[in-house]
Amino acid sequence: MHALYWALPVCLFSMTWQAASAELHRDVPYASPGGMALALDASIPEGDGPFPAAIVVHGGGWVRGDKRTDVEPLFKPLSDARIAWFSINYRLAANALQFGAAINDVEDAVRFVKAHAADYRVDPDRIALIGESAGGQLAAMAALSDDPALAVKAVVAFYTPSDLVSLVRDSELIPPAIRDSIQGTPFQTIILARLSQLSPIDNVRPGIPPFLFIHGTADRLVPVEQSSAMCARMKTVGASCQVFTVEGAGHGMRWWQSSAYKREMIRWLQDHLSGAVV
User: Are 85 and 56 in contact, with CB atoms under 8 Å apart?
Assistant: First the structure.
């Protein structure tokens, strides 16, 4: 089934809506892990292209979220900048054993966009990953892969949990009773080892793409220090990164009053994707 999805023409999978400046494709299947169909929405600027592109990964604590609702504030800025965007759904973690599987879904989305670059008039060498919250962790982990087939040009990480180990150890959202119940047990070692494997900060290596971290200074769910620490770790291996803070903002761009982060994101993407096609 997975191969069939890829082989059929893109037009069979999409409802295409023509706007003044973009065409929108809804619910395009891009992968089917274990027989579960995963879909994306795509917005492509009018014109011949090839356009730079962004793959957008929503948040939701790995257990909820949607490709349209959670990241909706990003769509217009990207479209106005004539950057094609692909917003994806992925497997939500129904239990602890599924935690981390969605990294493979983000990787499949990168492969899909590259394989269908000509169909969508995008440049396969000018692709960025954008993720928010849990989606930021998934996007970062995909971008940190050493597989050349998964190489992307840039990453924008919104209030991303980059160090899952310290988050579990220190977060006020983890009840002390639960934390204390595994303290000093074999389960603690196993859990922390797995969280380290899935923590972007523990997977930094030379040659990774540049990151822009965008984070609210009043985020109580994922402290802004998670982004600054990740950027500091990246610099130790010569990687490029920048942290842009949104003063007084909490967790979730849908509640942010300032739009400065949108302008900064677009400016940074245009710099790192060699500008948008005009």
Answer: yes
Low-confidence ranges of the chain (pLDDT < 50): 1-20, 175, 276-278
**CATH number corresponding to 2-163+199-272:** 3.40.50.1820
Break the chain into its structural domains and give their ranges: 2-163+199-272
Q: Are 75 and 107 in contact (CB under 8 A)?
A: no
CA–CA dist 154, 240 (Å, integer):
10
pLDDT of residue 189: 74
> Residue 161 phi/psi, 5° resolution?
-70, 95
List strand residue ranges (DSSP E) for 32-159, in order.
38-45, 51-57, 84-88, 122-132, 154-158
| Residue for token pair 């037009």 | 11
* Beta-strand runs (E) in 166-274: 211-216, 241-246
Angle at 235 between CA 232 and CA 241, to 5 degrees: 80
